[in-house]
Amino acid sequence: MVTMHRQDDLLHDMREELHDLTHFSEITADRKGRLTLWLTFIALPLVWGVDMIFDFMGVAWEAHVASWANDAFPGTASDLILWVGVVMIALAVCVAVAPHIGGDLLGLAIALLAVNLMWVDGAAHLVFGMIALALCCFAMARMAHGDRDREVGPVS
Question: What is the pTM of this model?
Answer without folding.
Answer: 0.82
